[in-house]
Amino acid sequence: MKLSRSTLSVALLAVLAAPAAHAEIAFDVIGGSEISFEGLVQADYNYFDNDFANLNGDAPDGKDSDNELRRAELVLKGKGPGNIDWVVGYDAKADKWLDVNAKYKLGGDANHWFQAGQFKQPNSLEELSSTKNNDFISKSLVTNTFGIARRLGAAYHYGTNDWGITASYFTRELTEHPAPTPHGPGFGFRGNWAPINEKGNILHFGLSYIDYDTFTDTVRIRARPDADLAGQRIVDTGNMTNADRQSTIGAEAMWVTGPVKVQGEYMQSTVDRYNNGNPRQSKDYDANSWYVSGLWNITGETWGYKDGVPTTPLPDSPASGMWQAGLRFDTIDLDDGRAIAGATPTAASVVDGVLGGQMDTWTVGVNWYWRSNFKFMLNYVMVDSSRYFVRTPAAPYADIPANNNVLVNRKVDDNPNILEARVQLYW
């Protein structure tokens, strides 16, 4: 960690030395490449009003709150030589590589390119948007659960400022730790179309499809309650064995009118499972999730549009900043099966299929972009969830084990509330 902290200190000094710069810090031109430096530092605080699960379970201190340096991203970018753009990014907090790739613009066209290396895969409007401009502190349930982020691979893109198609082949992540958890190879497609595309008036639609080998024969799908520091996933399928491939289809839409932005996404994911002679452990598994959100720039700014995603403006008045108010409804359904009642009222039920649980959340948020390099966020999350649990002697209501053909004793409702805050520095 000493190297990471030293590197982060240098980055902070660099941005403080140039407080007027809202974008990257230009370094030099080396070998025909214009090199610049970007950074993102985020610190989060979560307060948990627990209901059933202890959401601060990763911290055995008996407290109801947690705080953490969330990201410390350092990024070098280059334009050139020729039609080549390149990027090398590293997160000193998570100790992992971010975007590490090169892009060749065919014929010099910014909308027609080939890319190789590690990059975000072509799915999810929210995932492809810049992290520093997230509308809410936690990304949505659908993005965090089913979105495929950065993987090593190659992609081809063709389009205009109003539409585009992207095809990608990918393998593992460049950094896979703390323990090796390899991702199998896969492919993805995304198409985006903006029939209306002008400043302050944007209508966007998108479709995506991702399919990949699970690599191992076990898949587990679970989700935190829209709180990145939560130590528990309160909906969880447990380990699903005999898994072969996982595919996800997604649909997205966004509408910008003046200072208001409304967007939503839906994804359905299927785990293909091979036959092992036990029909309860061989059924293909389906899950889905979606959200819809609204954001209002109280101070009147509006959004732009580039590469099939919205772009967030700078404050019209840097001294007073840009204020935003937002509301999001989020839902996920990890149940694909049923509980068959026991022979007697006190007997446990048997699960036919997978019962990972269901969860709905409402998030209310306020954002303040101050000057050109700072952002402050405050969110309040209300959770409504339910999930089947199994009783064991060692853990009275432990997680559902791996074989999906288990005895369950009761369905548990878990409805916590969470207060979240974030301080952000970027350049």
UniProtKB/TrEMBL annotation:
This is Porin. Gene3D superfamilies: Porin. It comes from Lysobacter arenosi. Residues 1-23 form the signal peptide. SUPFAM superfamilies: Porins. Keywords: Signal.
